[in-house]
């Protein structure tokens, strides 16, 4: 299951709780809660899941089987082949953003993942085997150092940060990501 983008989450859930993602998805569906944040809060309050795990379980539980498969297929394809080297960067970014709040939605697309709150605040894109691009909606923010204008790279965001390794997912980058989240 190396191509399963949820394998790490399922394994982490199993190690922490004794139940994998499939079991937690079943529990969540049986709760009969269709609103995402209500389900996240239920899983956290009733079952003691952390926010990131509760969020993933809620997304999985509230999507149709076809939609879940489509998201899984999109993530698998996105990190297939040489770009698989950028998956740890993606995982670190998602871990960081999960701590911001309970209102984050991850929407995988063909080549990137849209990070949304009330609107899109960032996009996460494995661009090459050795570069990951993080697009941020920080309109009005001055460019400085690694924070550059998005230019022609992507019109859906105002800024871009090029990331070469998980070590570059540092406090500065997380600060820009949080600022984008707070504006979203």
The helical percent reads 40-55%
Uncertain segments of ≥5 residues (pLDDT<50)? 64-70
**What's the Cα radius of gyration?**
16 Å
Number of domains: 2
How would you sum up the major sheet? 6 strands, antiparallel
The outline comes out as globular
Count every beta strand, where a strand is a DSSP E run of 2 or more residues.
Answer: 6
Count of discrete alpha- or pi-helical segments spanning 4 or more residues: 7
Overall mean confidence score, pLDDT: 86
Spatial strand order of the main sheet: 1-2-3-4-6-5
Write the H/E string, N to C.
HHHHHHEEEEEEH
User: What is the terminal separation in angstroms?
Assistant: 35 Å
Summarize the structure.
Helix content is 46%, strand content 16%.
Please provide a written account of the structure:
- The protein is an alpha+beta fold.
- It has two domains: 7-62, no CATH class; 82-183.
- It is 46% helix and 16% strand.
- It has seven helices and six strands.
- The chain has helices at 7-17, 21-31, 36-47, 51-62, 65-78, 87-98, 171-183, and strands at 105-108, 113-116, 120-128, 131-136, 148-149, 159-163.
- The protein has a six-stranded antiparallel beta sheet with strand order 1-2-3-4-6-5.
- A hairpin with a 3-residue loop joins strand 2 (113-116) and strand 3 (120-128).
- Helix 3 packs across helix 4 (51-62).
- It starts with 6 loop residues before the first helix and ends with a helix.
- Residues 64-70 have low confidence and may be disordered.
């Amino acid at each position: 299951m190396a191509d399963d983008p949820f394998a790490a989450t399922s394994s982490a859930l199993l190690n922490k709780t004794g139940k994998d993602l499939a079991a937690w998805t079943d529990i969540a569906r049986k709760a009969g809660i269709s609103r995402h944040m209500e389900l996240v809060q239920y899983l956290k309050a009733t079952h003691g899941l952390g926010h990131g795990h509760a969020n993933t379980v809620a997304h999985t539980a509230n999507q149709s089987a076809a939609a879940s498969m489509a998201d899984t297929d999109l993530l698998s394809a996105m990190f297939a082949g040489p770009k698989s080297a950028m998956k740890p960067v993606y995982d670190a970014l998602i871990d960081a953003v999960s701590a911001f709040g309970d209102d984050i939605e991850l929407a995988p697309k063909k080549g990137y993942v849209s990070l949304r709150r009330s609107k899109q605040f960032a996009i996460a894109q494995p661009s090459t085997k050795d570069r990951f691009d993080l697009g941020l909606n920080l309109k009005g923010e001055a460019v400085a150092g690694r924070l550059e204008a998005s230019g022609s790279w992507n019109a859906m965001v105002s800024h871009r940060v090029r990331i070469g390794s998980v070590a570059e997912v540092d406090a500065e980058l997380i600060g820009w990501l949080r600022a984008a989240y707070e504006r979203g």
